[in-house]
Amino acid sequence: MSIATALLDDLEHYYDEVPRVTAVVEEIGPFTLFLRDGAEGWQFYARPHLGYAGSFSVEQIDEVRQRQREAGAPEAFEWVADATPALESVARDAGLEVERYPLMVLRGAAAKPSSQAEVVMLDADDDRIGRVQAVVNASFGETDAVGEPAHVDAVRLGITRGTLRVSGAFHAGEAVGGGSHSPRSGVTELMGIGVLPRARRAGIGAAITAELVEDARRLGVTTVFLSAGSQRIADIYARVGFETVATACIAEPAE
What we know:
The protein is an alpha+beta fold. It folds into two domains: 5-102, no CATH class; 118-245, Gcn5-related N-acetyltransferase (GNAT) (Aminopeptidase). Helix content is 32%, strand content 30%. The chain has seven helices and eleven strands. The strands form two sheets. It has an eight-stranded mixed beta sheet with strand order 4-11-5-10-9-8-7-6, sandwiched between helices. A three-stranded antiparallel beta sheet has the order 1-2-3. It starts with a helix and ends with a strand.
């Protein structure tokens, strides 16, 4: 598996740009640390400086983790293995568990399957946003028990700013799934695509994916990518039109 240099550069710039809209940014050694600005919104992570091609040390990772602990942030690092191959072994030496995920890019148009749900893009003032967020959270928890939504104000603000686009899937008027993407400079990542367990195997996840892709294309986005949570999930996205081009890495302390 190989990835074109131009595409890899586009993805690296995207990963560096996206958190800067809402995060506090600190530079520590060869890492850029993104910290949540205030008590609300999403937690972030550290990643190698954009364009950094040098080495890493356990001490540098420990310094970042210490700052994350001080800030009450997750001790999390994210990077693309193909862009920063030297980091994985050092992260493991520092006592972190490294998970590897297929990084996939859409080739051509996304196939739009038939679905039992209505899938639509949501405006910032749509009163269904909270329910969709709660359903997505439940889907990632592998449960049909839908709890309280999280980050609703941050989602609405992102939609208003144009930095976040959100879709919802509805069956018989009830939210059963959703997803989002975050366009920047002609590139976007599909994120948080989830369907309640009881509504799966009905083409809803693929329909959400296709709707997000269509929305991105309407905005002039030329590169659509995602990280699949497993090879099984990657196989599903491959049927929609995505191709694995690289490996995304996430490192966190062992539970």
